[in-house]
Design a protein that fits this description.
The protein has 9 helices and no strands. With 195 residues, the protein is mostly helical. Helix 5 runs antiparallel to helix 9.
């Protein structure tokens, strides 16, 4: 059976397709989810956005986390680059797991990996802030400008996460679910500011 016929009849798996097709499909999904995070509830309806995010993956959050860890380790003082890389990596994943566990305990209607996926993708605006701070450090070193970049990234990340989290948490428990999200992104923003 040809690959196109397999797609038509729904009998295709990733084992039946070329590796490049699998990689490109996954990268396109990562791109689409990053667009959703950068423009939460922009042109698309809430249902289509939530549907995209219910199809969770951990490739995008892994790439975002690796990029953030690499940026912060590059700017680390002295020989502490590998320590900073490991610390950022662990903080991102354990922080996302803790926030997810909190949402689950509050009766959220989202799976563990869906929530970790959303929180991981929503770090992307903070990662862009880290890139902007890195570039600005070569041009002009000013803590006020870094603070502005980090504040914008923090607000964007928090807003994107809250948009998704309030969809899956009951109204009377939303504050309890959003509170740890605020602290999670505050901590990451603080690490970027200290770079």
């Amino acid at each position: 059976m040809r690959h196109q016929d397999q797609l038509k009849y729904g009998t295709v798996t990733t084992l039946d397709e070329p590796v490049i097709d699998t990689i490109m499909r996954d990268l396109n999904q990562v791109r689409d989810k990053l667009k959703v995070v950068l423009l939460p509830l922009g042109k698309e309806s809430q249902d289509s956005v939530l549907q995209k995010l219910r199809d969770w993956d951990l490739w995008g959050p892994l790439l975002v986390c690796l990029l953030l860890s690499t940026i912060l380790s590059i700017t680390a003082p002295g020989e502490s680059g590998s320590l900073v890389f490991a610390a950022v990596f662990v903080i991102v994943w354990f922080g996302a797991a803790a926030v997810t566990l909190n949402a689950q305990l509050l009766g959220g209607t989202i799976s563990f990996f869906q929530s970790v996926c959303i929180l991981g993708y929503c770090i992307f605006p903070l990662t862009l802030s880290a890139v902007a701070c890195l570039v600005m450090s070569f041009i002009y070193k000013n803590i006020l400008i870094k603070s502005i970049f980090v504040a914008i990234g923090f607000l964007w990340s928090t807003r994107a996460s809250v948009v998704f989290m309030i969809q899956v948490i009951k109204e009377e428990r939303r504050t309890l679910a959003v509170y740890p999200v605020f602290f999670f992104y505050t901590f990451i923003g603080w690490m970027i500011l200290l770079q």
